[in-house]
Amino acid sequence: MAHQEEKCPYVVGNTIKLRLGAPYDQQEITTKITRVFEPFTLSCAMVVLLDHPALGLTGHLVLKLFDRRFAAQLRKDHKFNPWTPEIERQYHDFILDGSASEFITRLNTDSKIAEEEGDTWNDPQNEGYLHDHMQDLYGTEVEAYQTLKDIQGKDIPQLFACLTAPSASLSQKPSVNKYIDVSGVLLQYIDGFLLTDIAAHAPREVWQSVCDEAIQIVNRIGDRGILNEDVKTRNFIVQENPGRKFKVFMIDFALCNFRSEYEDETDWWKWKAIQDEEGAVGYVMQKYLHGGFVYRRSARYKQLDWEFKRADVY
């Protein structure tokens, strides 16, 4: 089982077994890790090498696993203890006696439990909460990619497969493994540099157009009914193509909300104004590049500022 591991398995050179979901009909494959993106935050992201031509999966892809054990930033944010094999053993016992199922059912029926009782939880309860939370993040990421299917491979990476990294549990019971197995996705690997590093990788004369493209992508995603609460300049990868042509891709969609979750148009646009996804890129890059990029606020966000950010609105 997973608790038999003494340390993080996501290191270069290691292999990982994956069970692919649709359209691959639960086919199991093995991948080899060639690069790891550390530190891990909400998920564990790495580059893996695949050699499965019959499935159309070859070469380097990004494997993103929503693994509660090693999501270091998420554990730190919640003030949970770092993962240990002993914590995993306790969590396994918590699952086997039925407590995990009962606990997670309560979490999903009362949204206030974490806020009201979280400070009193023990380690197994913390693990149960994290597992459930990671499933929510995974579900949001997948829904975002599906919503943005028409711009996959253009403005965001292509989603190749949803998957599970099966636990090493000796138990074969789905009722046990569903609280241990790790969900994830296989994505197109964009070989490039972070938007925040543009000054070191691209000539000054392209900074304006590259940053403008990043903002346009933010707005195209918003046009498709998505509000991203995690728009940061590090969530953009810039790919250099022949002839010093640069293409921007946006990544990381686990902290998105969707238009259907809001009561009405006014509520939706109010939160779009408050979140200010466009400004999260524009203002930051303008300050960072010291005149190499001038942020011109779009008509849409000027209108949102006027409607929702005037002092008398609230």
TrEMBL record:
All residue ranges annotated as the Protein kinase domain in the record: 89-314
Highest taxon of source: Eukaryota
Database matches in PROSITE patterns: PROTEIN_KINASE_DOM (PS50011)
Signal peptide: none
Protein name: Protein kinase domain-containing protein
GO molecular function, a single term: protein kinase activity
